[in-house]
Write a structure and sequence with these properties.
single chain, about 60% helix
Protein backbone atom coordinates (compact mmCIF):
# COMPACT_ATOMS: atom_id res chain seq x y z
CA UNK A 1 0.00 0.00 0.00
CA UNK A 2 2.80 2.43 0.88
CA UNK A 3 4.47 1.72 -2.48
CA UNK A 4 1.23 2.46 -4.29
CA UNK A 5 0.85 5.78 -2.47
CA UNK A 6 4.48 6.66 -3.21
CA UNK A 7 3.98 5.78 -6.87
CA UNK A 8 0.84 7.91 -7.07
CA UNK A 9 2.62 10.84 -5.45
CA UNK A 10 5.58 10.53 -7.81
CA UNK A 11 3.38 10.42 -10.88
CA UNK A 12 1.47 13.46 -9.63
CA UNK A 13 4.61 15.56 -9.10
CA UNK A 14 5.19 16.64 -12.71
CA UNK A 15 1.66 18.01 -12.99
CA UNK A 16 2.02 19.86 -9.68
CA UNK A 17 5.45 21.17 -10.69
CA UNK A 18 3.94 22.72 -13.83
CA UNK A 19 1.36 24.77 -11.95
CA UNK A 20 3.64 27.61 -10.81
CA UNK A 21 4.95 28.04 -14.37
CA UNK A 22 1.43 28.22 -15.76
CA UNK A 23 0.40 30.68 -13.06
CA UNK A 24 3.44 32.84 -13.77
CA UNK A 25 2.67 32.77 -17.48
CA UNK A 26 -0.89 33.88 -16.71
CA UNK A 27 0.41 36.63 -14.41
CA UNK A 28 2.83 37.81 -17.10
CA UNK A 29 0.06 37.88 -19.70
CA UNK A 30 -2.37 39.65 -17.37
CA UNK A 31 -0.05 42.18 -15.75
CA UNK A 32 3.03 42.64 -17.93
CA UNK A 33 2.64 41.69 -21.57
CA UNK A 34 0.37 44.58 -22.59
CA UNK A 35 3.35 46.90 -22.21
CA UNK A 36 6.43 44.64 -22.16
CA UNK A 37 5.17 42.19 -24.78
CA UNK A 38 4.79 38.45 -24.53
CA UNK A 39 8.47 38.13 -25.43
CA UNK A 40 9.71 40.92 -23.10
CA UNK A 41 11.05 43.08 -25.94
CA UNK A 42 8.76 46.03 -25.17
CA UNK A 43 7.66 46.32 -28.80
CA UNK A 44 3.97 46.81 -28.05
CA UNK A 45 2.34 50.14 -28.89
CA UNK A 46 2.56 51.15 -25.22
CA UNK A 47 6.08 49.77 -24.87
CA UNK A 48 7.28 51.76 -27.88
CA UNK A 49 5.56 54.92 -26.65
CA UNK A 50 7.18 54.58 -23.23
CA UNK A 51 10.52 53.45 -24.70
CA UNK A 52 10.56 50.39 -22.47
CA UNK A 53 13.74 48.34 -22.26
CA UNK A 54 14.18 45.09 -24.14
CA UNK A 55 14.42 42.43 -21.42
CA UNK A 56 16.02 40.00 -23.87
CA UNK A 57 19.17 42.12 -24.31
CA UNK A 58 22.20 40.74 -22.45
CA UNK A 59 23.33 44.28 -21.60
CA UNK A 60 20.01 45.04 -19.89
CA UNK A 61 20.09 41.70 -18.07
CA UNK A 62 23.66 42.33 -16.87
CA UNK A 63 23.06 45.83 -15.51
CA UNK A 64 19.65 45.20 -13.97
CA UNK A 65 19.62 43.54 -10.57
CA UNK A 66 16.88 41.30 -9.24
CA UNK A 67 16.43 43.82 -6.44
CA UNK A 68 15.75 46.63 -8.93
CA UNK A 69 13.19 44.49 -10.76
CA UNK A 70 11.60 43.51 -7.43
CA UNK A 71 11.40 47.16 -6.34
CA UNK A 72 9.87 48.33 -9.61
CA UNK A 73 7.29 45.57 -9.72
CA UNK A 74 6.31 45.99 -6.07
CA UNK A 75 6.37 49.80 -5.91
CA UNK A 76 5.70 50.76 -9.50
CA UNK A 77 7.54 53.28 -11.65
CA UNK A 78 6.90 56.97 -12.11
CA UNK A 79 9.74 58.73 -13.85
CA UNK A 80 10.54 60.96 -16.78
CA UNK A 81 13.48 59.90 -18.88
CA UNK A 82 14.47 61.18 -22.32
CA UNK A 83 11.38 63.40 -22.25
CA UNK A 84 9.10 60.39 -21.85
CA UNK A 85 6.97 59.94 -18.76
CA UNK A 86 7.02 56.30 -17.70
CA UNK A 87 4.41 54.97 -15.37
CA UNK A 88 3.85 51.44 -14.14
CA UNK A 89 1.43 50.53 -11.36
CA UNK A 90 2.62 48.96 -8.14
CA UNK A 91 1.75 45.29 -7.70
CA UNK A 92 2.71 44.90 -4.02
CA UNK A 93 -0.90 44.28 -3.04
CA UNK A 94 -1.47 41.76 -5.84
CA UNK A 95 1.58 39.48 -5.84
CA UNK A 96 2.74 36.95 -3.30
CA UNK A 97 6.53 36.88 -2.73
CA UNK A 98 6.86 33.52 -4.49
CA UNK A 99 5.00 34.88 -7.52
CA UNK A 100 7.30 37.88 -7.64
CA UNK A 101 10.34 35.61 -7.51
CA UNK A 102 8.85 33.56 -10.34
CA UNK A 103 8.23 36.70 -12.45
CA UNK A 104 11.86 37.73 -11.92
CA UNK A 105 12.99 34.25 -12.96
CA UNK A 106 10.78 34.49 -16.06
CA UNK A 107 12.36 37.86 -16.95
CA UNK A 108 15.80 36.30 -16.56
CA UNK A 109 14.80 33.45 -18.89
CA UNK A 110 13.96 35.99 -21.59
CA UNK A 111 17.66 36.75 -22.04
CA UNK A 112 19.07 36.11 -25.48
CA UNK A 113 22.67 34.94 -25.67
CA UNK A 114 25.00 37.51 -27.31
Amino acid sequence: MARLIALLLLTALPAAAELPDKKVERLWKAKCSACHGADGRGQTPTGKKLKLPDFTRPAWQAKTTDELIRNRVMNGVLETRDGVEKEMPAFKDELQPEHLDAIIALIRKLAVAP
